[in-house]
Amino acid sequence: MAGPDVDPEQLFELARAGADLLVEFVEAGVDVDLADAQGNTFLMLAAYHGHPGLVRALAEHGADVNRLNARGQSPLAGAVFKGEDDVIAALVSAGADPDAGSPSARATAQMFGRTLPGA
Fold it and tell me: Do the Cβ atoms of 53 and 33 come closer than 8 Å?
């Protein structure tokens, strides 16, 4: 839950923006795996929008690096699709599964002729 005094949409915007302030909300009790209506968690949004520092911080606070959104996409596949190499490295080092989701990060990399470092 986001809590009674916190607008979840503002938290999702913090994730999209890569704002470290989001970590303070998580430390204050906001669910690190809170998801929007499309099933995108903070980590998914931070990964997709290219914020490796926030991705690492959320993973360190227990975010599920393999949680799929409502479309069956993983954060790692989203980062591969967007070509976010630093995010890919952060997710792989946090234990992201390159074969999770559909299409998986591995399949996405193959589609775009990319490699998955460390995967």
Answer: no
- Tell me the domain boundaries of the chain: 8-111
Closest residue by Cα to residue 92 from 61, 69, 115, 68: 115
Query: Which DSSP letter does residue 35 get?
Result: B
CA distances from 37 to 12, 25, 26, 27, 71 (A): 11, 20, 19, 23, 11
Cα separation, 43 vs 103, whole angstroms: 18
Instruction: Assess contact for 51 and 84: CB atoms under 8 A.
Output: no
Give tens-digit pLDDT for 21-33: 999 999 999 999 9
- pTM to 2 decimal places: 0.92
In CATH terms, the superfamily for domain 8-111 is Ankyrin repeat-containing domain (1.25.40.20)
In this structure, what is the dihedral angle of CA atoms 102, 50, 116, 94, given to the nearest 10 degrees? -90
On average, the pLDDT of the chain sits at 93
Tens of pLDDT along 61-97? 999 999 999 999 999 999 999 999 999 999 999 999 9
